[in-house]
Structure formats: C-alpha cells, structure tokens
Amino acid sequence: IVVTGSDDHLWKMWALPDGNILMTGEGHTDWLSGCCFRPSGTQLVTSSGDTTVRIWDLSRRGCILTLKGHARAVHDCSWHSQGDFVASASMDSTSKIWDVNSERCRCTLRGHKGSVNSIEFLPFSSTVLTSSADKTLSLWDSRTVRRLF
Questions:
Q1: Burial grade of 117 (CB within 10 A; 0-12, 13-18, 19 or more)
Q2: 19: DSSP letter
Q3: Backbone dihedral angles phi then psi of residue 83, each to the nearest 5 degrees
Q4: From CA 92, how far away is CA 86, in angstroms rounded?
Q5: DSSP for 83-115?
Q6: What is the CATH number of domain 29-147?
Q7: pLDDT of residue 123
Q8: Of 35, 47, 96, 147, which residue is least crowded by CB atoms under 10 Å?
Q9: How confident is the model at residue 149 (pLDDT cuts 50, 70, 90)?
Q10: How far apart are CA 100 and CA 5, in angstroms?
Q11: Where do the WD repeats lie (predicted)?
C-alpha cells in the first residue's frame, strides 16, 4: 500500500502491485505536499499548500483533526516513531511539532532563513532533521526546542 497526494487537493491510497485505489481523502483546499502513515498504520498525516496539516483516521475514512498555525504553505510532514507527535515544515521558515493527543502545537522551530522544505524525526529519538531553501540542514531537540547543528 502507498499513499500519494497531488495538485487536485486529494490523497489516494493505492494497492500494489495491481494499482487499485483503496481510499481517497478530500478536505484540503490546495495542493498536497506530504503524506505519512502513523507507525501503527491506523492514521495518516497530510500537509498542504492551504497552510494546514490534517490527521486522517483510515477506519473512519475521514479527517479527524486539522492543525492550523503556519502562515504559509506546508511542504512536508512526519510522524514520530511512537505516534504521539507530528512534525511539519513550512514556507514560512518554521517547523512545528504537534502533540496529536492534546491537538496543539507543542513548539515552533525557528532559525532557517528560507522555506523549510522537509522534516523527519530520527527513529526512536526526539531529534528532528530539517532542510531548507537557505541551503542548510539543521538537527533539533524537539524537547528543548534547541538547534543541535
């Protein structure tokens, strides 16, 4: 199974190798830039040009949470390996760590001088890796909101 997002504002879940569409998600109002399964496989996180990050419950076949707080398009999203946190990277030069259980932004990572284009939690760690249009990579401790590198 793979998930794709596109300019048509939809994400689609595909069965491999036959290519059948298993599920489609609609709700974003602009292009989709990222899709990532929760480690348990029960939910999906998506990021979009509409400045939001959405959590989708696959068994309910719908959006269960919309996270708002970025000022510009969101380029990427990622789940923490334990599944309680989501990270997002935005054109507004910030990244955010979202607590899925409290449905709130836990912290905002500031320091890049350009659009933050990708974000990833290092496995089984509180460390986050970001890459930016300012041609830098940064490592962050998401617990202390401190840039490590």
A1: middle
A2: -
A3: 85, 5
A4: 18
A5: SSEEEEEETTSEEEEEETTTTEEEEEEE--SS-
A6: 2.130.10.10
A7: 93
A8: 147
A9: confident
A10: 21
A11: 25-66, 67-108, 109-149
- Per-residue pLDDT of 50-86, as tens digits, reads 999 999 999 998 999 999 999 999 999 999 999 999 9
- Contact yes or no for 141/148 (Cβ under 8 A): yes
pLDDT tens figures, 102-132: 999 999 999 999 999 999 999 999 999 999 9
Q: Tokens in use for 51?
A: 């400045």
Distance (Å, rounded) from C-alpha 141 to C-alpha 128? 6
Q: Where are the beta strands (DSSP E) in the chain?
A: 2-5, 10-14, 21-26, 32-37, 43-48, 52-57, 62-68, 74-79, 85-90, 94-99, 104-110, 116-121, 127-132, 137-141, 146-147
Which token pair is 145?
């909101």
